[in-house]
Amino acid sequence: xxxxxxxxxxxxxxxxxxxxxxxxxxLILLMFVTLYPVINTLAYSFNDGTDxxxxxISLWPRVFSLQSYRSILQDPAVYxxxxxxxxxxxxxxxxxxFWTGMLAYALARREYVLxxxxxxxxxxxxxxxxxxxxxxxxxxxxxxxxxxYWVYIxxxxxxxxxxxxxxxxxxxxxxALVESxxxxxxxxIRVYWQIIFPLCTPVLATVALFVAVGSWNSWFDTHLxxxxxxxxxxxQYLLKMKLATTQASANAGKxxxxxxxxxxxxxxxxxxxxxxxxxxxxxxxxVVYPFLQKYFVTGMALxxxxx
Amino acid sequence: xxxxxxxxKLRTGKRKGFFRQLAGQWQLAxxxxxxxLYVLLFNYxxxxxxxxxxxxxxxxxxxxxxxxxxxGLANFKWLFSRPDxxxxxxxxxxxxxxxxxxxxxxxxxxxxxxxxxxxRGFKRTVQTVTYLPHFLSMVIVVAMAQNIFATNGPxxxxxxxxxxxxxxxFWLGEGKYFxxxxxxxxxxxxxxxxxxxxxxAMTSIDPSxxxxxxxxxxxxxxxxxHVTLPGIRSTFIILLIMNIGHLMEAGFEIQYxxxxxxxxxxxxxxxxxxxxxxxxxxxMGVATAAGMFKSVVAIILLVSANFIAKRLxxxxxx
Lengths: 307, 318
Description:
The complex is a heterodimer of chains A (307) and B (318). Chain A has 16 helices and no strands.
């Protein structure tokens, strides 16, 4: 936008030289601040446990050790939790895409008689919420879903925000696509799956990312409904339990930490274990994220304007 | 497939009965009604549970036998006689206002800075890095925060190093820091993500406005003030309305995970209050009443913000 032609038209100001440099410095600093906690956690996770309690580890482990990872990877509970986390994430994502995509298509068709009613009722859910207790009662007392794998799947099959993102995208596609297919005799279900669905790849990838991340990151459903079922715990919940145990040492500060350090001979401590689980449960997100980034920016911008 | 050609004709003005139209659109109905019923079940049916706000769950023996008599507004009266409920309201509002102000200001500032970057590769890198924390779960973020803000952690090392603090500060254990800690962590997590919508608003500003301003002698600062900021005004207003509707949602995960006994009087939000009374102490009546109070206030806030924006002649949500 500020191109060279414009630069020639007016006298160069000192501002034009200084500002970009300052701006670049600020943004580099910001990236550093953003990444610092991540790298710091990584450094802790690869550090010797007892040594880590002294603190002061910054961007690189002080006494390198794989002990934390070794002890985690020997724990069958971690594998079970990883399996639960991964399988529910995949299942929820597929179910969401299947239903939300079709719903968005139907609500994007202007001639659909139920369009107004359904859209209004769905959008209202973004602002009005029955609240924690009524939902809890529905899931435990009415539907008897607690302590079951399905409590992860069934209550989270729909999000209005995602529907709006997809619908906005579909509305932006040329009308002629649908009209001509219909004149050729295709019904709406066929039009959607054969014509619209393949064209929606970018927006569906965005929504898949949102849903998958949301599901992978959730821990409160486990906490409320499945905390007593050892075989239904998720990775995030294991980490949450570690937070609670390390809370004690964080609270009491140094004294406890040193007491722990002296008493501990196994070379791992709750802190390094916590950091190692953090790293393990972050990896899937770090792997998927860069591939989907080019999609979600457009998807977000589209959806939030409408939302 | 005559029904579709008829569907097209409809728009030219020919009216038919609702049910005949719907029958003609059975495929659209098949695609949308199951999910609609699902939403009714999971979002609207639970509202029936608000009836618990008017019931007495106080008598354990009766509750165990499934008897919960109606007690009118007793639960609400009890709530408003409790100092810890007012405390929960105060904490919720304090943290959501801090989040709203700092979140919005930081996102707009970063969007402006990014908008001034000419090097596309650099801009993309900054975006990729700053969007990342949005995708991390609150559990992970709190786990990281416990390292960063530990008494022997890097923040304290920095502060004592440059002499701003004589002894390490106990960030996680003192109530007076809690709200600001939550604010800082939320900004760290969401600032990049928050820029997306502002940047997309900025890219739709007509570039000739910048050129005209430059010809008239406006420097970079004046172009930002008089072209960029007015260009994102309507986006800002819409987001503000939405956020005001969510003022009663200070978040719940971060307070629950980061809070501890030492800071409870600052970390307890309405949601945590509901959780403690409802799930831990099984007093569904009081907890539902608190939750219902929250929902009703949220609706009032949303409607009034929307109304004010309409009066000011701005774009509105509804």
